[in-house]
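User: Hi! I have a protein structure encoded as tokens and I'd like to know what sequence might fold into it. I'm fairly new to this, so please keep things simple.
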């Protein structure tokens, strides 16, 4: 039995119990005659405004630090949980003195700016927009405000890109817009630049433009290292679908874009350019990692943590590769990207609070379920509070105001378990695709671009015996899977009908 897929936007209140319950605050779930997206108030515009509003609330949360905690004492910026690298690095990395990143040597032990080139350009542009008059404290405040404005634009780009990646599910971007950990960590550092470029890369791939997606992956990798991991899932899915030419386009675009950004600095200031990579390699075990817990509990500095972390990360990537090639149905790109980035985070030597930003848009695309998303976000907010309370404890001297070491270790475990929980749910969706909320309407992979609806050409699975012939594909090349929907009632909202 076949049916033509309904291409109308999916109202989340008809598929998600948590969204339906929360909607009672604004009048309840959408009715049958509702026209989502009609008029000026389209889903994309609403999501963008919500994202900007939440970003502004995150800026308000930093107000105690802006009014003095960044400057008048180390512990107060931790007790108020409003710490940010941005004002501190304005002076510490030479921007206040108009030093040129990567070319001019810094005073002190750091020697050169320890950020990738495109992030360094972002920081430098913000310093050009910062007036040089007044006290250094006032200039640091303005520098933070300028960066916050630029990062707010990145947040809007992320919200729009996620809303448009799955054409029928624009409301899934509300997970990003309303994520509490997103608002709390958005202005700690400059990670949103790479996150925005990565989100647009996924959008371009979903539109069947692998070269453009690759260019954006290359630019994102020039801002932060983790986006290069997207090429692994893209390769695996292209291999399984027999579309390696699309992967070649993405790879070529990524390499060219990365070289365009990095080659001039690499050639003219090689020592400054290398600083990010040598710093990442030589950095000891640090906050937020499982390695820190082991080090603190055993008293061993774990000088070999690099080797162990690299080996375990590669093993995790291999497991994801096997999953991608053995799953009963080709996984969606967002699912695999989420898993590889989460594995990288879980096994890394350090987990800074803002690293959660890497995963928020990927989680919204991989597992758009409010219950699971909020469980994970609760764990991340607990870690956000835990690290600042621990730093308050270690910086308050004999007063010991804050969270002791054992409490901080518990906060790290909460973060690790929350991320592992979301990984487990995504893996379950890959192994049991009928439970995947994105595929309830018979879709293959709305973010799959040229791979969407393409039959497999290579897998590691043994061919299964079939008792009857395959049903013909409906219009559009998508096969509807009939059966009882395990996560919601049947109906015109995109849920699967009962047999």
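Assistant: Happy to help. Inverse folding works backwards from shape to sequence: for each of the 499 positions I chose a residue that suits the local structure. Here it is:
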């Amino acid at each position: 039995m076949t049916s033509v897929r309904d291409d109308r936007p999916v109202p989340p209140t008809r598929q998600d119990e948590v969204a339906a319950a929360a909607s009672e605050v604004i009048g309840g779930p959408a009715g049958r005659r509702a026209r989502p997206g009609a008029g000026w108030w389209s889903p994309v515009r609403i999501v963008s405004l919500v994202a900007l509003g939440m970003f502004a609330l995150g800026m308000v949360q930093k107000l105690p630090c802006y009014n003095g905690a960044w400057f008048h004492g180390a512990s107060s910026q931790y007790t108020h949980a409003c710490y940010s690298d941005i004002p501190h690095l304005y002076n510490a990395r030479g921007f206040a003195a108009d030093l040129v990143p990567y070319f001019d040597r810094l005073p002190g032990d750091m020697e050169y700016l320890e950020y990738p080139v495109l992030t360094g350009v972002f920081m430098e542009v913000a310093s050009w927009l910062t007036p040089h008059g007044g006290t250094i404290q006032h200039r640091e405040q303005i520098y933070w405000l300028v960066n916050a404005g630029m990062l707010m634009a990145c947040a809007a780009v992320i919200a729009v890109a996620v809303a448009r990646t799955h054409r029928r599910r624009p409301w899934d971007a509300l997970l990003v817009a309303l994520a509490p950990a997103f608002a709390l960590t958005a202005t700690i550092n400059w990670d949103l630049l790479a996150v925005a470029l990565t989100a647009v890369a996924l959008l371009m791939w979903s539109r069947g433009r692998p070269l453009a997606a690759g260019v954006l992956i290359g630019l994102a990798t020039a801002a932060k290292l983790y986006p290069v991991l997207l090429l692994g899932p893209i390769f695996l899915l292209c291999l399984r679908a027999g579309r390696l030419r699309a992967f070649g386009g993405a790879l070529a675009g990524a390499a060219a874009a990365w070289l365009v950004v990095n080659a001039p600095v690499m050639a003219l200031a090689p020592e400054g350019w290398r600083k990010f990579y040598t710093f990442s390699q030589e950095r000891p075990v640090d906050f937020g990692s499982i390695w820190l817990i082991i080090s603190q509990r055993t008293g061993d500095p774990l000088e070999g943590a690099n080797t162990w972390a690299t080996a375990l990360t590669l093993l995790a990537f291999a497991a994801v590769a096997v999953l991608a090639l053995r799953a009963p149905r080709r996984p969606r790109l967002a699912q695999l990207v989420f898993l590889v980035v989460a594995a990288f985070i879980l096994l890394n030597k350090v987990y800074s609070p803002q690293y959660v930003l890497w995963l928020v848009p990927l989680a919204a695309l991989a597992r758009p379920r409010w219950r699971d998303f909020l469980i994970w976000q609760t764990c991340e907010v607990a870690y956000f509070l835990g690290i600042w309370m621990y730093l308050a404890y270690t910086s308050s001297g004999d007063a010991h105001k804050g969270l002791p070491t054992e409490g901080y270790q518990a906060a790290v475990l909460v973060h690790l378990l929350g991320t592992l929980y979301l990984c487990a749910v995504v893996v379950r969706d890959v192994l049991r695709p009928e439970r995947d909320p994105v595929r309830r309407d018979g879709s293959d992979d709305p973010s799959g671009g040229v791979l969407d609806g393409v039959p497999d050409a290579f897998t590691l699975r043994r061919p299964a015996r079939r008792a009857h012939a395959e049903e013909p594909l409906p219009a559009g090349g998508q096969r509807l899977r009939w059966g009882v929907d395990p996560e919601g009632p049947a109906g015109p909202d995109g849920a699967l009908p009962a047999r």
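A useful reference point when you look it over: Confidence is low (pLDDT under 50) at residues 1-5, 467-499. Feel free to ask if any position seems puzzling.
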